[in-house]
Design goal:
Length: 70
């Protein structure tokens, strides 16, 4: 199972300072999950769930879609 007790957001804090990118972080985490025994399907599902956590926890104002809010 890939249930998570924690809500986690994976993001690119400062790619120049930390010398990494979001795709690299996702790849590291994917491979760590696989080493921990997650199936490919469950590792991908876990990462997609974290993407939803990030969307739910965003604190930046998202622009309205074109033509909306006018």
């Amino acid at each position: 199972a890939c249930e998570s007790q924690l809500r986690v957001a994976l993001c690119t804090d400062d790619p120049l300072t930390f010398a990494t990118s979001l795709p690299e972080k996702l790849a590291y985490i994917y491979h760590a999950l696989r080493r921990q025994g997650y199936s490919e399907k469950n590792a991908i599902r876990w990462l997609k769930d974290r993407q939803e956590d990030a969307k739910d926890g965003i604190f930046a104002v998202m622009p309205a879609p074109s033509g909306m809010g006018r």
